[in-house]
Specification:
Layout: H1 2-7, H2 12-22, E1 25-27, E2 31-39, E3 42-50, E4 53-55, E5 62-72, E6 77-87, H3 101-111, H4 118-125, H5 129-141, E7 146-148, E8 150-152, E9 157-159, E10 166-168, H6 171-180, H7 186-200, E11 206-207, H8 208-211, H9 217-227, E12 231-236, E13 239-244, H10 250-263, H11 265-292, E14 301-306, E15 312-313, E16 316-319, E17 327-330, E18 332-338, E19 347-356, H12 363-374, E20 390-396, E21 404-406, E22 409-411, H13 413-419, E23 423-426, H14 427-438, H15 444-453, H16 461-470, E24 481-483, E25 509-512, E26 522-527, E27 531-538, E28 541-545, E29 551-552, H17 556-562, E30 567-574, E31 577-586, E32 589-590, H18 596-611, E33 617-619, E34 623-625, H19 628-640, E35 645-650, E36 660-667, E37 671-682, E38 691-699, E39 702-711, E40 720-725, E41 740-742, H20 754-763
Parallel strand pairs: 14-24, 19-20, 20-23, 25-36, 31-33
Antiparallel strand pairs: 1-4, 2-3, 5-6, 7-10, 8-9, 11-13, 12-13, 14-15, 14-18, 16-17, 18-19, 21-22, 26-34, 26-35, 27-28, 27-30, 28-29, 30-31, 31-32, 35-36, 37-38, 37-40, 38-39, 40-41
Helix pairs in contact: 3-4, 3-5, 4-5, 11-14, 11-15, 11-16
The protein binds a DNA duplex (20 and 20 nucleotides) through helix 2, strand 3 and helix 5.
Length: 766
DNA sequence: TGGTCTAAAAGTCAAATCCA
DNA sequence: TGGATTTGACTTTTAGACCA
């Protein structure tokens, strides 16, 4: 451009190129720079390419400093760049296509026989794993490669292997990789290898009992069957066997089937079946006693969970104290609520049942049962004792001999258990009760054997018992049962007591305010819609952190104001303005343990002295509040003046760093609730024929329909919709909904409960 | 480990331009 | 008019921050 101005030649470009080509000039490679361009009357920065030229000086390239103007987008202003650059003679462009990381990855996968995990890919292409992962993502998006994990029936969706997803170009690669049997690790890998070896080398099916002794077998096998599709599962006389399809011939399988049917499975399966049957038997009897009113405790309830197949599962699993990843299983757990003083004061007596029919019930087994109880959070105390309200109950089928030595006496197992504070029930006691009730003689084992021989294919033993004993009607069907949802462990944090300037402190957070009455002296602040910001100042340095401790950039003007302080402020940043609402540290002292009112007074004094009249730094106003009516009033006016909502802070409260504390309560005016779809139907009567969705919230663990939502678009059952909440009618129906937003990120189990809705209603002002 | 989002760099394409 | 080069608009790819 300089030459063009100097020579006034318009067609300079091609002449220069020509001279360069002929060897009179040297030129640089193309430099990308921005220059101002006027387009349609508006100036803006446009990207250009430029070369620099110099007079040719022999043949060797020359290193020379150049300078040019461009626009620095990061800093947002014009800059002058100085750099040393090579001037060289003209060379015909070599058409060498650079191979990109993406191409490398696709090539690596294509050249591999089998599908690859991402870390294997990164090893092959020799790039950092993180770089490879982002590139893989890009390639997936553009459908240049595909990925696959395994379908996890447990969660009902695809999940990844322990090493991640498998990436491939051709589907055969995925199938071939699975045949290598190296995508699953640990115990599961061993199991799959045993099955494989037994099939291939010993040419036999593998019984489940050979693979597992504990209860985790179902999980492991579910995953293996889902991933390795060539593992076949077969049931022979109640026993489960596994083999690899395509390795054993059909004759071999038939032969072994006959063998197992004849020999082994009958006895074991009879005995395990008897065990489970006994559990059902005493449970049904107890239910019958409850409905007859002879059980003695008015409203006991069985603990249960819902299994994958949607059935109730009364075998209760509890997390172990010594290793929370593992569980203990208990046969039945019965809760007996007692109300000694009032219905509000409910005490729970928990009966934990262990039922044994024949198999291994001895002193040692009782001891392990008690150890199991001590070793769960629900039944054990922190000191590793059984909780006082937990009663271990053992259901036995036989009296037993007096073969246990206690001191100088010999006692029976039942006596031994009772001596230790346990409770022993005999199956015969249940049988006697049922005999009185039905008038016919009932023997559990006889009943089981009849079912086992005869009609076991058609119905379960439980149903058979219900038919025999209660004429097909289950006593107390689900009346006294409560589904137990596993609680998540709470993380405990060490409270912060002292603050070092420059070290980020986890900010204190608010809980929701539901319009509860205000009992202690409190203050109300407008809630500012910005970025949480913690400002540290000391020795002329000023630093600001976001809510998660990331650095926030500060303007020089702000730094100039704050640099002489030695303090830590808490506040909210909106655009370039800082709204301060708390003080955590001042002149060498941590003040978070001082009451809120003191901290605020101090902050306001500082604000008045140093920040008055500043646009950059402001102190958030506060109002004293005495009751909830006053809060409502203030809320209205504050929201009107454009704030997001309000925060109520207890005057005497300390600053609880990192906690979502109940000392600070926030409230926003508009509320939403999450409901899930229970049913979808097309309304044929209406002209537009919309889909009518029944939406429900939870009510004591059961879905309860609170709204019918009709739209032209269909939402699937169990999907979650977010509705704007205005109120509830007398029949617990939602009122006046404007729109429903699908929430794909939520599951129905995260939806609101009826109690939530009532609380929200109480807090929404009319 | 999985993923999303954004900015910027790198690359592509075809029209415009220039010259002989 | 043909070939070389420039140019601007556009697309593709990479880097890096952030999140669960």
């Amino acid at each position: 451009s300089e030459l063009r101005i100097a020579t006034k030649i318009n067609t300079l470009d091609s002449r220069l190129t020509d001279m360069w080509k002929k060897g009179y000039l040297f030129a640089t490679d193309i430099i990308h720079a921005y220059r101002p361009v006027n387009r349609k009357g508006k100036w803006h920065w446009s990207k250009t390419r430029q070369r620099f030229y110099m007079q040719a000086n022999g043949f060797a390239p020359v290193l020379k400093e150049i300078s040019y103007r461009t626009f620095d987008a990061k800093r947002g202003r014009e800059v002058i760049i100085k750099q040393e650059i090579l001037f060289h003679k003209y060379e015909r462009k070599k058409v060498t296509k650079k191979v990109s990381v993406g191409d490398n990855i696709v090539e690596a996968i294509r050249n591999s026989d089998v599908a690859l995990f991402s870390d294997e890919i990164s090893e092959k292409v020799d790039h950092a794993p993180k770089k490879v992962r982002t590139t893989i993502n890009y390639l997936l998006q553009n459908k240049k490669i595909s990925k696959k994990g395994w379908f996890n029936p447990n969660q009902g969706r695809e999940s990844w292997f322990k090493k991640g997803f498998l990436y491939y170009v051709k589907p055969e690669q995925y199938a071939k990789r699975l045949q290598l049997r190296d995508v699953i690790d640990g115990r599961k890998k061993d199991v799959s290898e045993i099955i494989h070896l037994n099939s291939e080398v010993q040419r036999r099916m593998t019984p489940k009992t050979e693979l597992f002794e504990d209860t985790r077998s179902e999980d492991i096998m579910r995953e293996l069957l889902a991933v390795y599709r060539d593992i076949e599962r077969i049931e022979i006389s109640g026993e489960t066997f596994y083999y690899i399809r395509g390795i054993l011939s059909s004759e071999e399988i038939e032969k072994q089937k006959v063998y197992w049917e004849r020999n082994k499975s009958k006895k074991t399966s009879l005995h395990t079946g008897l065990g489970h049957g006994a559990e059902d038997f005493f449970q049904l009897s107890t239910d019958a006693m409850c409905s007859d009113g002879v059980f003695g405790i008015p409203e006991p309830w069985w603990e249960y969970t819902i299994s994958q197949s949607g059935e109730k599962r009364y075998n209760v699993r509890k997390r172990r104290r010594d290793d929370p990843r593992r569980i203990h299983e208990f046969d039945r757990v019965l809760h007996c609520p007692l109300m000694p003083f009032s219905t509000k004061n409910v005490k729970d007596i928990i009966l934990v049942f262990e039922a044994k029919y024949r198999r291994r019930m001895d002193k040692e087994y009782w001891d392990t049962f008690i150890t199991k109880l001590k070793n769960t959070y629900e039944f054990g105390t922190n000191d590793g004792l059984v909780k006082f309200n937990v009663v271990p109950v053992v259901v036995l089928s036989w009296q037993g001999r007096e073969d246990i030595t206690v001191g100088d006496k010999k006692v029976s197992l039942a006596k031994y258990i009772t001596m230790q504070g346990g409770l022993v029930l005999f199956l015969t006691e249940f049988e006697r009760y049922l005999k009185e009730k039905t008038g016919q003689s009932i023997y559990f084992k006889k009943m089981f054997k009849e079912w086992f021989r005869g009609i076991r294919e058609e119905k379960t033993f439980t149903q058979y018992m219900i038919d025999c004993l209660f004429g097909g009607v289950r006593p107390n069907p689900g009346k006294y049962e409560i589904k137990v949802v596993e609680k998540k462990e709470k993380k405990t944090k060490e409270p912060t007591t002292s603050i070092a300037v420059g070290n980020f402190v986890q900010p204190m957070l608010c809980q929701e305010y539901f319009g509860t009455s205000i009992e202690k002296p409190s203050f109300l602040e407008p809630k500012i819609d910005g970025i949480r910001c913690q400002i540290h100042c000391k020795d002329g340095e000023v630093k600001a952190f976001s809510r998660r401790g990331k650095d926030i950039k500060l303007k020089q003007e702000v730094i100039d104001v704050l640099k002489n302080f030695e303090a830590v402020f808490d506040g909210e940043k909106v655009a370039d303005t800082f709204h301060l609402f708390d003080l955590l540290y001042y002149k060498g002292k941590t003040v978070i343990e001082k009451p809120y009112a003191h901290r605020r007074d101090f902050l306001e004094r500082v604000g008045k002295k140093y920040f008055e009249g500043l646009d950059m730094i402001k102190i958030v106003p506060r109002f004293e509040v005495r009751d909830s009516d006053q809060v409502e009033e203030l809320m209205k006016s504050i929201v009107k003046s454009g704030y997001e909502g309000i925060v109520i802070k207890e005057a005497a409260s300390v600053y609880e760093a990192g906690r979502r504390s109940s000392f600070w309560l926030k409230k926003k005016p508009q509320r939403t609730v999450d409901l899930f779809v229970v049913s979808v139907e097309k309304d044929e009567k209406r002209t537009q024929k919309p889909w009518v969705h029944e939406l429900a919230c939870w009510d004591k663990g059961n879905p309860m329909v609170v709204f019918k939502h009709s739209t032209t678009e269909k939402h699937e059952v169990d999907s979650v919709l977010e509705l704007t909440f205005i109120g509830l009618t007398k029949n617990n129906r939602l009122r006046h909904i404007r729109e429903a937003i699908p929430r794909d990120d939520k599951t129905k189990y995260e939806c609101n409960s009826l109690d939530d809705l009532k609380k929200i209603e109480a807090s929404v002002s009319e």
